[in-house]
Amino acid sequence: MQYQISGKQIDIGEALQVYVKDGLGTVVEKYAERPTDAHVIFSKAGSEFVCEAIVHLSTGLTAQASARAHDIHASFDQCAEKMEKQLRRYKRRLKDHHKVRANPVDVLQGASYILAAEDGPDESEPESMEPMIIAEMETRIPALSVGEAVMQMELAHAPVLVFRNEKSNGVNVVYRRDDGNIGWIDPGNLS
């Protein structure tokens, strides 16, 4: 597994990098069969250290966790505990579904745009209905089953996930509803 360990405006020493590689390697190898790479980022927020970890699995799914503590090692330890819990749930769900993915997830590239926010409700009528694009980047659209999409959304702590449905080959969306349930949009399944 490849590691990328960095700090945002803080120095990450060799001892901390070895500590992170050993700790995260133990957690990930226990629950994930073939992790490909891990990104661990340390930053400072006030008097606390923040540790954010993202692990990419060979199945195409991504797990991420973050934690805060007054000690940089404690922030990593808490983050690793959260990562272990997520990966344990992920592995249990795979066993519950009796489905082990033989091939990695296919990923399509898509365009992602960030649109400028409107200034507020008092604003007069806009001159054009075309929104102003302030950023453009590529995004990954994985080919997953609906169950895997829900699992990926939960692992990534994302409110929404766009994916290509393996069954219908159409673009679908899963999202967290305000009532706590999961919504699924399948435009190709209209009667």
UniProtKB/TrEMBL annotation:
GO terms for molecular function: ribosomal small subunit binding. The gene is raiA. It comes from the Bacteria. The lineage of its organism: Bacteria, Pseudomonadati, Pseudomonadota, Alphaproteobacteria, Rhodobacterales. This is Ribosome hibernation promoting factor. Keywords: Cytoplasm, Translation regulation. One of its GO terms (biological process) is negative regulation of translational elongation. Transmembrane segments: none annotated. It comes from Maritimibacter harenae. Required for dimerization of active 70S ribosomes into 100S ribosomes in stationary phase; 100S ribosomes are translationally inactive and sometimes present during exponential growth. Associates exclusively with 100S ribosomes, which are dimers of 70S ribosomes. Residues 130-183 form the Sigma 54 modulation/S30EA ribosomal protein C-terminal domain. InterPro entries: HPF/YfiA_ribosome-assoc (IPR050574), HPF_long/plastid (IPR034694), RHF-like (IPR036567), RHF/RaiA (IPR003489), Ribosom_S30AE_C (IPR032528), Ribosom_S30AE_C_sf (IPR038416). Its main location: cytoplasm. GO terms for cellular component: cytosolic small ribosomal subunit. It is found in: Cytoplasm. Belongs to the HPF/YfiA ribosome-associated protein family. Long HPF subfamily.
